[in-house]
Amino acid sequence: MMMVGLAKLLNLAITINNTNLLIINHCRFLTFIVQNSINEPSFNNTSMCSLIQQCIENKSLTKARMVHAHAIKFGLLGLNVGNKLTDAYLKCGCIVDTRKLFDELPQRYLISWNSMISYYIGQGKCKEAILLCKRMVSEGVLPDNFTFSSVFKAFSELGFVNGGREAHGMSIVLGLEVLNKFVGSAIVDMYAKFGKMKEAHVVADRVMSKDVVLLTALIVGYTQHGDGEKALKVFGEMIRQGINANEYTFASILITCGNVEDLSIGKLVHGLMVKSGLESVVASKTSLLTMYSRCGLIDDSLKVFNNFLCPNQVTWTSLLVALIQNGKEEVALSKFKEMISSSVLPNSFTLSSVLQACSSLAMLELGKQIHAMVMKFGLDRDKYAGSAVVNLYGKCGSTEMARSVFDALVEYDVVSMNFMIYSYAQNGIGHEAIKLFHKMKELGLEPNEVTILSVLLACNNAGLVEEGCQLFDSIKNNQRFELTRDHYACMVNLLGRCGRLEEAEVLVKQVRNPDLVLWRTLLSACKIHGEVEMAERALKQVLDLSPDDEGTHVLMSNLYASAGNWNQVIEMKSTMREMKFKKNPAMSWVEIDKEVHTFMAGDWSHPSSKEILDTLGCLIEKVKILGYIPDTRFVLQNMDEEEKKRSLYYHSEKLAIAFALRKTNNKTTTIRLFKNLRVCGDCHSWIKLMSHIKLLRNETQMPLSVTKQTFGMRDQSVGAAVLRSDQAEIIKIWLRNLWHLDGTLAEAATICKTAEILGAKARINIIL
DNA sequence: GTAGGGTTAG
Fold first, then answer.
1. N or C end of chain A: which has fewer CB within 10 A?
2. Measuring from the CA of residue A219 to each C1', which nucleotide is nearest?
3. What is the pLDDT of residue A566?
4. Rounded distance between C-alpha atoms, residue A292 and residue A294, angstroms
């Protein structure tokens, strides 16, 4: 009690703690102070430093402030005490006090400068650290090995290449670059983080005594910049030199093994890791999981995962990514639920990966729930999670939602731009795609191969032939990057579908070793235009490359059918029979109240078949009023015209939509239709007209209400347009709501008739 | 009293 009283007298704030030991310590400390205060001559530098040491050991800011006050009072705030006190403040975690005292000191030890710099870097305040370092030099204090080994990290984190180079120069002058491995490895790491691997390697070669940290920094650099070969080479040399790899090295080199998909080396490294006793270190084991997954051995990844007692956020995410990259999206989604149940929180990596799974499966409802999680974690403006949400909505046909999420992003890069452009492209909104492409360039973002492919796809799906040609030629002439076969295939499709078949064929021949996709694209275009002769040339090439290609036989048989060459159809079908081909039946499915309903043409096994047929009959009549003309060219069997029309009515797409409309109420504005094959041209036109029917439920006996509909498709590869709208407003509105335009004369007639019915003065150019 | 390297994503 006496001590507490004394403390109060001395204006000291003390905390009465239940722990006896703490009270005892406190009392001893106070006794010391009081004794020294009474007996002034015994307060000297040594005793002050000893007191400060106690502050450090107890991590007590209160005591440090108390000693500080005494040091001032007794005029002892000199070099030793002052510098030691900054250390105490720093260890107590109080940067305000530390910095204030540090700035007030008449002179600072190098060690204090270093501590301050290191502290700022540890707190992520890299600019502050660099400023302090510059001030130190300007005050005539030369940096030492400690200063350099810290400060290079600040330059690399800020991406200050020139500053980093300048500091590197200074370390050379002071002889620290080569002689000190701490400095050397920090420089290597810095250049590696800048992606300047040549410079990193040169420095590493110069450092006198190489150790595992230095070489690991080099390996990590090569791994992260995709140079697996060099990473493996450095690793091999390291082992030969007798330098043992540690958990950091294994974590990185296993990623390289996965990247180069070299299972034998991966297994060898796994063996080394076990031999080193580092198999259970979390980060290395996580890399092991990734290595097996990238080598395609997902079961081994699962085995590694099951070995974790308490998988962390990164391990869980690695597992999800492994599953998704091995085509097991559904399993990944169920594992994600497991992760959440085990109270491991997802981060941006996790959510963007899971969203990727939802996008691939077009699972909009689950995707929306994950979007909600993204918002809950404040990641909706994060460029990774945010752009994954953009991709989700884009892939599911909700371009407006995609755009609204896209607009909220803080930072744009080429990937987020590509997602948005692709979303416009696949939903047939070509002009918006092109607009965004120009905006991207205005923002100074360099388009890449994917961007160009997306814009070309947009041109395909919106019939913007001239725009597509212009872009293709400009890239070809610019030679900023090489156009791939995919770009060529896109152009062949664009030209071919609008009837410029000769140009398309020339383009195919321009490609060195044209592949299956290119010839098949040309073949498809030939099918649209009934161009048998060129088709046969393309067919020869396709069969040379892939004699058993089922799709091609089907395509060719369909071409002969649409050209009315029934003899060849019979011949083709018999070849297919001989080769035991079976055409995949076209299927469509819709999800209503979490239940999936699947339909096939001519299959009446669905319990509601009768009602579906009634609804469909009514819908077809309504759509006919809008100008629907059944396009019997899509009937590939030899039958009379009336039979052909009837067979078109019962396509699986139409059955599924009729069913969905019966089962949903007025609140449903969107029906998502999934298909295993490309939608047929007739259904395509029919669906587009359907989206403009406005039928009220009470108008008929049937529960029909279609106001505004978007049809998201699993296979949206229906491409190319030969139709172009002109200024007529109604057509513009219509085009905006359309998915794609495809190029059939029947559709042109449909559009004209619709425009007429709606009272619009439309002019339509048909490009053939 | 001060210092260097790792694993997951769109």
1. N
2. B5
3. 84
4. 6
Positive or negative, the CA dihedral A278, A279, A285, A287 is: positive
Measured CA to C1', the nucleotide nearest A215 is B5
Span A298-320, average pLDDT: 97
Q: Closest nucleotide to residue A252 (Cα to C1')?
A: B6
Task: Calculate the angstrom distance between C1' of B8 and CA of A135.
Answer: 39
The secondary structure element, H or E, covering residue A219 is: helix A212-224
Distance A221 CA to B5 C1' (A): 10
Q: ∠ at Cα A401 (A426, A423), nearest 5°?
A: 15
Query: Nearest residue to B7, CA vs C1'?
Result: A283
A386 CA: nearest nucleotide by C1': B10
Residue A237 structure tokens: 């040399």
Q: Which long-range contacts link A701-707 to residues 24+ away (Cβ below 8 Å)?
A: A702/A614, A702/A615, A702/A618, A702/A662, A703/A661, A703/A662, A703/A665, A704/A615, A704/A618, A704/A619, A704/A661, A704/A662, A705/A661, A705/A665, A705/A666, A706/A661, A707/A666, A707/A669
- Rounded distance in angstroms from the CA atom of residue A581 to the C1' atom of nucleotide B3: 69
Quick check: A542 and A551 in contact, CB under 8 A?
no
Overall pTM > 0.85: no
Match 């190319």 to its residue by tokens: A720
CA distances from A122 to A116, A126, A157, A348 (A): 10, 8, 11, 23
C1' nearest to CA of A289: which nucleotide? Answer: B7
Could you tell me the distance in Å between the CA of residue A395 and the C1' of nucleotide B7? 30
Q: For residue A705, what pLDDT is reported?
A: 28
Per-residue confidence band for A123, with pLDDT thresholds at 50, 70 and 90 = very high
B chain positions with any atom within 7 Å of a protein CB: 1-10
Domains of chain A: 430-579 (1.25.40.10), 588-710 (no CATH)
Nucleotide nearest to A147 (CA to C1'): B3
Q: Choose among A729, A750, A625: nearest CA to A684.
A: A750
Q: Which of A109-113, A373-377, A600-604, A692-696 has the lowest mean pLDDT?
A: A692-696
Q: Which residue is nearest to nucleotide B9 (CA to C1')?
A: A349
Query: Among all strands, which nt has the closest C1' to A83 (CA)?
Result: B1
A751: pLDDT confidence band, cut at 50, 70 and 90? low
A185: left (phi over 0), alpha (psi -120 to 50) or beta: alpha
Q: How far is the CA of A451 from the C1' of B10 (A)?
A: 15
Closest nt to residue A249, judged CA to C1': B6
Distance set, CA A341 to CA A310, A334, A338, A357 (Å):
13, 11, 5, 19
**Å from the A296 CA to the B8 C1':** 17
- By C-alpha to C1' distance, B6 is nearest to A248
A474/B8 CA-to-C1' distance in Å: 38
Contacts 24+ apart (CB under 8 A), A316-320: A316/A344, A316/A346, A316/A350, A317/A346, A317/A347, A317/A349, A317/A350, A317/A353, A318/A286, A318/A289, A318/A290, A318/A293, A319/A289, A320/A350, A320/A353, A320/A354, A320/A357
What pLDDT is stored for residue A604 in this prediction? 83
The gap between A183 CA and B5 C1' (Å) is: 12
Name A338's Cβ contacts closer than 8 Å, sequence gap at least 6.
Answer: none
Amino acid A269 CA to nucleotide B9 C1' distance, rounded Å: 25
Give A757 CA → B3 C1' in Å: 80
A207: left (phi over 0), alpha (psi -120 to 50) or beta: beta
The closest of A669, A653, A665 to A703, measured between CA atoms, is: A665
| Contact between residue A215 and residue A201 where contact means Cβ atoms under 8 Å apart | no
